[in-house]
Amino acid sequence: ALLSVSDKTGLVELAKFLHEKGVELLSTGGTAKTIREAGMPVKDVSEYTGFPEMLDGRVKTLHPKVHGGLLGAAMAEHGIGNIDLVIVNLYAFEATVAKGSNFETCIENIDIGAGLPWRGGPSMLRSSAKNHKAVTVCVDPSRYGEIIADM
C-alpha cells in the first residue's frame, strides 16, 4: 500500500490495520513519519525508488518504480513490485484561496503532479485509474472504514 496524505485523519488506524493484515507500507515524508511514530514499519518511497525526495519534498512519487507498480505494466522485467492500494489526498487549493492565504501559500497548495515535475497525487490517481481492475484508491479519510470492512 502506498500512503501519501496531507490529511492525517484516521491514518494511524488504517496503517495499523494494513500492517496487521501483512500489507507492506510504502510512504512519503510526513506520512511515513506519522506511521513510524505510531510504531509500525514503513518503507520510505525514496528508499524504494533509490532516489531522494527533491525540491523541499515536492518531488516524491514521480518515479517509474511507483507508476510502474501502479500501472502493472512490465513490472517483473524491471524489478518493480506491485502497488495495489493507494491512499492519497489532494491539496485543498480552493479552500486555501478561499480563506485568503497569501500567494506563496496558495502556490504551495497546488497539487499538479499530472505530467509535471511536482507533487504526484494526481499522477498516482491517473496511473491507478489506468489499472483500475487491480488498484484500489482512497482519497477521503472518512472512507478508510470501508477499506477495512472490505478487507
Which secondary structure elements does this structure contain, and how are they paired or packed?
Elements: E1 2-4, H1 11-20, E2 26-27, H2 29-37, E3 43-44, H3 45-49, H4 64-71, E4 85-88, H5 93-98, H6 103-108, H7 121-130, E5 136-138, H8 144-150
Parallel strand pairs: 1-2, 1-4, 2-3, 4-5
Q: Brief description of this entry?
A:
The protein has 151 residues and is an alpha/beta fold.
Give an overview in words:
- By secondary structure, this protein is α/β, with parallel strands linked by helices.
- The chain has a single domain (2-141), classed as Methylglyoxal synthase-like domain (Rossmann fold), CATH 3.40.50.
- Helices cover 40% and strands 9% of the residues.
- It contains 8 helices and 5 strands, in the order E-H-E-H-E-H-H-E-H-H-H-E-H.
- It has a 5-stranded parallel sheet.
- Helix 1 runs parallel beside helix 8.
- The longest helix is centred in the first third of the chain and has 10 residues, at 11-20.
- The relative contact order is 0.18.
- Residues 112-119 have low confidence and may be disordered.
- Residues 1-139 form the MGS-like domain.
- One of its GO terms (cellular component) is cytosol.
- InterPro entries: MGS-like_dom, MGS-like_dom_sf, PurH-like.
**Major sheet attributes:** 5 strands, parallel
Instruction: Tell me the helix content.
Output: 40-55%
Shape: globular
Q: Between the first and last Cα atoms, what is the distance in angstroms?
A: 13 Å
The arrangement of helices and strands along the chain is EHEHEHHEHHHEH
Number of structural domains: 1
Q: Report the CATH architecture.
A: 3-Layer(aba) Sandwich
pLDDT averaged over residues: 78
Portion of residues in beta strands equals: 5-15%
For this structure, what is the CATH class? Alpha Beta
**At the third CATH level, what is the topology name?**
Rossmann fold
Largest beta sheet: strand ordering = 3-2-1-4-5
What's the number of helices? 8
